[in-house]
């Protein structure tokens, strides 16, 4: 491939789009792994119990709350 | 760019069009994502289902693995939905 193609706006757009997708994927994968360990304590059943699914969703929301708190905490230290 | 040029389609020249390159990039990325996800699921389900490895995979272990894979995929959906709805609120 011609190296000047790297300046192609279509390719640039794809790269930026993929960068964002990679970041989102990584975040989802990391949180799913952490919340799975916290919420799914027994052997996986054929259906999530309501407490398991609400634990998973709470887990993700609390992680977001926590990261905001951490940002604020660091900001107040400056 | 080796990984991308190897399977280029037909044409006699080794030059690849940007479109072909982008298509291959998408395929390779999708494969990489799938591979990484499978690796995570393998780890999680091995921990959950193969607690005492025997001389062969038992029926109980097999069905645990199927359920575990399904639940992990479902959990990924729940987490991404929660993240998405949380970021909408802010």
From TrEMBL, chain A:
GO terms for biological process: protein transport. GO terms for cellular component: mitochondrial inner membrane. InterPro entries: Tim10-like, Tim10-like_dom_sf. It is found in: Mitochondrion inner membrane. It is a peripheral membrane protein. Belongs to the small Tim family. Heterohexamer. Mitochondrial intermembrane chaperone that participates in the import and insertion of some multi-pass transmembrane proteins into the mitochondrial inner membrane. Also required for the transfer of beta-barrel precursors from the TOM complex to the sorting and assembly machinery (SAM complex) of the outer membrane. Acts as a chaperone-like protein that protects the hydrophobic precursors from aggregation and guide them through the mitochondrial intermembrane space. The twin CX3C motif contains 4 conserved Cys residues that form 2 disulfide bonds in the mitochondrial intermembrane space. This is Mitochondrial import inner membrane translocase subunit.
From TrEMBL, chain B:
SUPFAM superfamilies: Tim10-like. Its main location: mitochondrion. The keyword Nucleotidyltransferase does not apply. Gene3D superfamilies: Mitochondrial import inner membrane translocase subunit tim13 like domains (1.10.287.810). GO terms for cellular component: mitochondrial inner membrane; mitochondrial intermembrane space chaperone complex. Keywords: Chaperone, Disulfide bond, Membrane, Metal-binding, Mitochondrion, Mitochondrion inner membrane, Protein transport, Translocation, Transport, Zinc. It is a peripheral membrane protein. Residues 24-83 form the Tim10-like domain. GO terms for molecular function: metal ion binding. It is found in: Mitochondrion inner membrane; Mitochondrion intermembrane space. GO terms for biological process: protein insertion into mitochondrial inner membrane; protein transport. The twin CX3C motif contains 4 conserved Cys residues that form 2 disulfide bonds in the mitochondrial intermembrane space. Mitochondrial intermembrane chaperone that participates in the import and insertion of some multi-pass transmembrane proteins into the mitochondrial inner membrane. Also required for the transfer of beta-barrel precursors from the TOM complex to the sorting and assembly machinery (SAM complex) of the outer membrane. Acts as a chaperone-like protein that protects the hydrophobic precursors from aggregation and guide them through the mitochondrial intermembrane space. Heterohexamer; composed of 3 copies of TIM8 and 3 copies of TIM13, named soluble 70 kDa complex. Associates with the TIM22 complex, whose core is composed of TIM22. Belongs to the small Tim family. This is Mitochondrial import inner membrane translocase subunit. It comes from Tagetes erecta.
């Amino acid at each position: 491939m011609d190296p000047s193609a790297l300046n192609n706006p279509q390719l640039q757009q794809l790269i930026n789009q993929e960068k964002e997708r990679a970041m989102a994927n990584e975040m989802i994968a990391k949180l799913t792994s952490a919340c799975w360990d916290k919420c799914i304590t027994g052997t996986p059943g054929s259906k999530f119990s309501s407490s398991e699914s609400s634990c998973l969703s709470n887990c993700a929301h609390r992680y977001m709350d926590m990261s905001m708190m951490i940002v604020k905490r660091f900001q107040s230290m400056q | 760019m080796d990984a991308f040029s190897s399977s280029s389609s037909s044409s006699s020249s080794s030059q690849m069009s940007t479109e072909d390159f982008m298509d291959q990039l998408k395929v390779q990325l999708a494969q990489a994502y799938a591979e990484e996800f499978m690796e995570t699921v393998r780890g999680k389900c091995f921990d959950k289902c193969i607690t005492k490895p025997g001389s062969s995979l038992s029926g109980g272990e097999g069905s645990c693995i199927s359920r575990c894979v399904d639940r992990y995929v479902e959990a990924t959906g729940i987490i991404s939905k929660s993240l998405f709805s949380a970021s909408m609120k802010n």
